[in-house]
């Protein structure tokens, strides 16, 4: 799976404060509300406009930029920025932006390109973050994106160095611990700066390059996707998802050595991703490195025992090694897992 953005969280927790270690504020020199009778007309450009410029080869045009402009102008009438924020004022501001998007008909759905999301009004976590931050840039709200495995969310930064996390797909505040637990984020991935860090503007641009590459991969345009993943890695050097996706694209076009290098890097940055270990096993299988492939498939099963594919792949290794009885045992287990979980 290239992206996964839907969350289900049984506990609603508000006003959870964290400590901000390295704030990066996405503010522009945009006009303020006072005396701005003409409203916002697309200048200066926001992060959402940058995303749409990147999506121009895939259909993004003037109508999509105009849609962002309209949302920003409506936000200027619906949201009242404060010179300094309390937690309650920050949550009120974030809820006002959510209410605006909800009233405009936007709903949460898996999506890759912002332009498509604006057309269909079905947007994913990255689209939500881009729109929120576009509004925040014009209204000078201290809001920045944060990346977790296959998911972006927002962080509202206070003057004293603390922050709250805002989950835009569900319109709620969540603590860091929720994302770490729910997404099983390894401590070493946080320590390496892979996840749970504020993204610079360039790193968030890297997320968009990754989305464009993923869009191309959904159309089996693997070779075309590779340069976008390379740009994502250039902007966000510790971007595990981009290494995973580029490695998968390389594998699809049979560039096995490059696939092996990227997937190995992805596994090092995020050792908890079962799909990376499974695809790494596939590459090693094709390279006839069966012992190493077996270790990767076993790791994939340990991380996600509900996916039937690595069980079947281990059966294939046993078959190649003339261990027919063991092969049949693994094939049978694969069939059981598929019947039970349907993955």
Describe the 3D structure.
With 343 residues, this protein is an alpha+beta fold. The protein folds into three domains: 18-191, no CATH class; 212-268, Alpha Horseshoe (Serine Threonine Protein Phosphatase 5, Tetratricopeptide repeat), CATH 1.25.40; 273-343, Serine Threonine Protein Phosphatase 5, Tetratricopeptide repeat. It is 56% helix and 8% strand. It contains 15 helices and seven strands. The protein has helices at residues 47-54, 62-78, 87-103, 114-120, 125-139, 176-182, 187-191, 201-218, 222-235, 240-252, 256-269, 274-286, 290-303, 309-320, 324-341, and strands at residues 18-19, 107-108, 122-123, 143-148, 151-157, 162-167, 172-174. Strands 1, 4, 5, 6 and 7 form a five-stranded antiparallel sheet that branches. The longest helix is centred in the middle third of the chain and has 18 residues, at 201-218. Mean pLDDT is 90; it is low at 1-17, 19-25 and 27-37.
Features of this protein?
single chain; 343 residues; alpha+beta; Serine Threonine Protein Phosphatase 5, Tetratricopeptide repeat; five-stranded antiparallel beta sheet; two-stranded parallel ribbon; 15 helices; 7 strands; 56% helix; elongated; disordered N terminus
Short description:
The chain is of the alpha+beta class and 343 residues long. The protein is built from 15 helices and 7 strands.
């Amino acid at each position: 799976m290239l992206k996964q953005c839907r969350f289900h969280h049984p506990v609603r927790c508000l006003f959870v404060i964290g400590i901000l270690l390295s704030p990066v504020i996405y503010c522009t020199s945009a006009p303020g509300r006072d005396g701005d009778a003409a409203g916002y007309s697309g200048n200066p450009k926001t992060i959402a406009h940058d995303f749409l410029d990147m999506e121009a080869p895939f259909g993004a045009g003037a109508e999509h930029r105009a849609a962002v402009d309209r949302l920003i102008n409506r936000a200027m009438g619906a949201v009242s920025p404060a010179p300094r924020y309390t937690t309650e004022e920050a949550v009120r501001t974030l809820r006002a932006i959510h209410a605006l998007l909800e009233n405009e008909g936007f709903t949460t759905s898996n999506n890759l390109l912002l332009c498509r999301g604006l057309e269909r009004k079905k947007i994913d976590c990255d689209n939500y973050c881009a729109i929120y931050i576009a509004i925040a840039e014009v209204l000078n709200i201290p809001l920045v994106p944060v990346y977790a495995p296959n998911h972006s969310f927002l962080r509202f930064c206070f003057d004293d160095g603390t922050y709250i996390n805002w989950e835009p797909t569900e319109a709620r505040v969540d603590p860091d611990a929720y994302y770490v637990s729910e997404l099983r984020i390894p401590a070493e991935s946080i320590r390496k700066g892979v996840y749970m860090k504020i993204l610079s503007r360039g790193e968030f641009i890297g997320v968009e390059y990754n989305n464009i590459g993923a869009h191309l991969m959904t159309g089996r345009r693997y070779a075309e996707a590779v340069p976008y993943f390379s740009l994502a890695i250039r902007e966000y050097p510790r971007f595990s998802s981009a290494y995973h996706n580029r490695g998968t694209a390389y594998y699809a076009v049979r560039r096995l050595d490059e696939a092996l290098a990227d997937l190995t890097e992805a596994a090092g940055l995020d050792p908890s991703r079962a799909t990376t270990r499974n695809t790494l096993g596939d590459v090693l299988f094709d390279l006839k490195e069966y012992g190493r492939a077996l270790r990767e498939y076993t790791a994939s099963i340990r991380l996600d025992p509900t996916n039937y594919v690595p069980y079947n792949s281990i059966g294939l290794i046993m078959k190649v090694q003339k261990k027919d009885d063991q092969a049949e045992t693994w094939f049978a287990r694969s069939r059981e897992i598929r019947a039970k979980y349907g993955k």
